[in-house]
Design brief:
ATP-guanido_PTrfase; Gln_synth/guanido_kin_cat_dom; two-stranded antiparallel sheet; kinase
Amino acid sequence: MSLQSFINEAISPWMKEEGPDSDIVMSSRIRLARNFADVTFPIVASETELKPILDFFQSEYSNRSFKEYEQLELVKMDELQPIEKRVLVEKHLISPNLAEKSDHAGALISQNEQVSVMVNEEDHIRIQLYFPGFQLDKALKQALEIDDWLEEKINYAFDGKRGYLTACPTNVGTGMRASVMMHLPALSMTQQINRMIPAINQLGLVVRGIYGEGSEALGNIFQISNQITLGKSEQDIVEDLQSVVQQLIEQEKRARETLMNRSGIQLEDRIFRSYGVLKHSRIIESKEAAKCLSDVRLGIDLGYIQHVSKNILNELMVLTQPGFLQQYAKETLSPDQRDVRRASLIRERLQLEK
């Protein structure tokens, strides 16, 4: 897998697979923050301190494989154009913070894009592993195996009382963020999500948008993750998150059933109006596109629409983002030009206009 493959393909290979409860839970992710012992953390380190870290990953792990995660490739931030960085952020292969780095920062990315190890972001190492659907236990198990594999050659910054030491105090302890990406259109339509979010926050969890902290919940997609990393084991954190996510799945299913029973024709009308917008629009903004794609995805899940693949919608959720639009066009586009290109690309991908 080459850099161009990471950038040109909107949907990662692992995203094409079905997972448990994938009609509601789009993906499960485990992220582990780690640092080298006796090396200054990246947020205050000099270039001379950071360079050996990236060089180490280049020599020890680039073009290596770990179990089924084949051909880890090191992508260096200083070798990427701004649009290329944005594309990797839109695919969740790197964080917005890493994209802002220039010297001595990078990411090891597996061939199937399921594993990404960010180097010299806020911490020296940020391991992240994705699985389709609701598979937090499996993601945790394999993320810890990758962690152990790296630790064979790395002396981690670790304290017997505090656990793993990290740049941000909120990550000290396990250094773990467990999260799920959920599509919750019915809870949004019925406005139940507005009262649920404060209750979820009180349980030590946080609800964010599709691109994490500070982002909007575009297309009714919400990221649910833990806030507490100290004083609990990795398994405890995952179990707490699983309990809340399972309740959200049940609530979303009930809300969908209620909408179909009480407002069936109105729901069907909304879904097919959104489908019509995607089918015929010549100009469409990102928020409207995300809303319409969410409606159509709901329509597929409920059986109203049967001839559109959910994979195409997953692809379009990424492909219609600003970075991908410009990468696809091979040029920098103004916001108005992106809106025109977005509408054209949606029609093309849905094969509704040749």
